[in-house]
Amino acid sequence: MRQQLFFSPTMREIPQGADIPSHQLMLRAGLVRQTASGIYSYLPLGKKVLRNVEEIIREEMDNAGAQELLMPAIQPTELWEESGRLNNYGPELMRLKDRHERDFVLGPTHEEVITSLVRDNVNSYKKLPMNLYQIQTKYRDERRPRFGVLRSREFMMKDAYSFDTDKEGLDKNYQAMFNAYTNIFSRCCLDFRAVKADAGAIGGKGGTHEFMVLSDVGEDTIAYSGASDYAANVEIADLPDMYEKAEAPKETMEDIHTPNMRTIEELTQGLQINSDRLLKSLLFLVDDKPILVVCRGDHEINEIKVSNAFEAEDVRLAEDKEVFDIMGVETGFIGPVNVPEEVTVVCDFAVKSVVSGVCGANKKDKHYQNVHPERDFSVTSYGDFRLVQEGDPSPDGKGTIQFAKGIEVGHVFKLGTKYSEALGAVYLDENGRSQPMIMGCYGIGVSRTIAAIVEQHHDDNGLIWPKSIAPFDVHVLVLNTKQEEQVNLGESLYESLKKAGYNVLIDDRKERAGVKFKDADLLGLPIRVTCGKRAAEGIVEVKTRRDGNMEEVHVDELDSYLTTLYQQIQ
């Protein structure tokens, strides 16, 4: 490709509103341009990178036995009503009507469509197992699109769906996808971790893992052990019951006057006690049932763990008016003592260790002190209800928990029969009995993966593409287009390198040498071959972008030199 004609407009200055390196560099290097908030056009350079990542994905998915298809982006709302997700998915679901006022959605994911497709075309165990995937544009109406293609409203995604007759088959497909994802992200030269995670809006009660690329700009926090391979999203990282039950204090429980002390900070300052002596109480509505969750004051209650503990469809923190209507007092003074009969009290494991605790008294401007669990209030059950903290013991018993930021690029789910039962995707088994198909779901954010690669592979001068996904292999620079020797040598190398199998970009623009060098570093192609002052001698300068190493090489030796060099670089 000739750079003079190549539609790849570069930018010298950092664009306004681009806050992270991947967003800045994808704009500056001419990979993308914003069309609207959270909506981007991929220019030829960006499209080449996108295609290379897609091909890696296709190769690994095909090797794992999956079959590629393509489903429509526009989906009838009837399917979402059948699955029960139409009203539960949230405002991110983009909706539209056709000219006949029929309702549709723009697909953020395709569980409903794929399930109905298989339901209508597969009815025997003889056709299973099956794993189907697509690479397609998805749509989510993000409240706050940011960070370029990392959080956008239109994005490219690979989504796959497996269908099995039993749990063992699902486990096999899940492991095959887990291995394929490991290969994909390794081939993209990413430093990543596969972490235990929550299924979120996709649903399902089986296992689930997120593939997280380690990055300071990541919006997710990974909890991992420094002494083992344990890793989990901080929202799902589990904690063992490691607390001994404290003996009851000699002092009896009594109420104290605590005007304007509603928060943990206000109580610790006003009562001059440590936060681990406080009992924090939050009222949740779990499938419309009031559940009071209690934890230590130095811990934070984890809503996802509450939801999972009760296997609930809908969990939310009660609003202030709901708290007052149920508990008879405002939020800052609720507690587990003398709760209304309809309220269930559950406690985090750590509450067992609290000695002479302080909790809300369910009276305005009142708290209780010298509170002891089970002596002074009933506990329906203890469980793991809190967010993990740095320094907590690792759940696998090896080392302690540390935190790192991560960018989610992939997610694998064991869906079970959530969608097959809702949409009637059944098969006839060996005995002619109807059984629901057992499903798995496996997604990769293709455009997010590109941004994650840029985050890990750049320097102050620009991009540093791994050769596996680089848009071009070699960048030939003709420094002075007025010098016939440089032009002729550049053209000759351009043709010979293409014949040798390299994908080549030649900078034949009528620009100053300094501009060409800066743009070459910005574009970040693996190898740069410069035709400069020694062109008449048949000498070119070869530079590797990643390590900056430069060598002068005679054109007669260039073929063998590049063969060896290309094999060595990442």
TrEMBL record:
Keywords (A to Z) from UniProt: Aminoacyl-tRNA synthetase, ATP-binding, Cytoplasm, Ligase, Nucleotide-binding, Protein biosynthesis
Family matches, as PROSITE patterns: AA_TRNA_LIGASE_II
GO molecular function terms noted in the UniProt entry: aminoacyl-tRNA deacylase activity; ATP binding; catalytic activity, acting on a protein; proline-tRNA ligase activity; transferase activity
Its EC number(s): 6.1.1.15
Pfam families: HGTP_anticodon, tRNA-synt_2b, tRNA_edit
GO terms for cellular component: cytosol
Reactions listed under catalytic activity: tRNA(Pro) + L-proline + ATP = L-prolyl-tRNA(Pro) + AMP + diphosphate
Oligomer status and interactors: Homodimer.
Domain notes: Consists of three domains: the N-terminal catalytic domain, the editing domain and the C-terminal anticodon-binding domain.
Role played: Catalyzes the attachment of proline to tRNA(Pro) in a two-step reaction: proline is first activated by ATP to form Pro-AMP and then transferred to the acceptor end of tRNA(Pro). As ProRS can inadvertently accommodate and process non-cognate amino acids such as alanine and cysteine, to avoid such errors it has two additional distinct editing activities against alanine. One activity is designated as 'pretransfer' editing and involves the tRNA(Pro)-independent hydrolysis of activated Ala-AMP.
HAMAP family named among the record's database cross-references: Pro_tRNA_synth_type1 (MF_01569)
Entry protein name: Proline--tRNA ligase
Organism: Alteribacillus persepolensis
Gene: proS
